[in-house]
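Input/output pair, single chain:
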Amino acid sequence: EVQLQASGGGLVQPGGSLRLSCAAHGFTFSSYAMSWGRQTPGKGREWVATIGGGGGATAYAESVKDRFTISRDNVKNMLYLQMNNLQPEDTGLYSCAKPDGSRGQGTQVTVSS
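Output:
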């Protein structure tokens, strides 16, 4: 059974940082590109970033480029998202996902002063 458990969210002021983690179980993690997405008020589900199975290739949504960094540890079966210079529009429920759309419950990020 595929399990994807995101953690690390919280309340942060504008300009602040958070690091999200996603623990993956039930599949050969290193064989899959992995993504972060978010559910934001008013915009629905948005793609945030993707990283290749080996970790060498990454892609970002224009809205987070140069602020967010996706990474992975294929030994620990962990996916990460380092988020810097957070803004109120980054508020949302962040979850990690496999290419087939399987995703976990997510972790809430709220950016507010």
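The chain has a mean pLDDT of 96. The longest strand covers residues 18-25.
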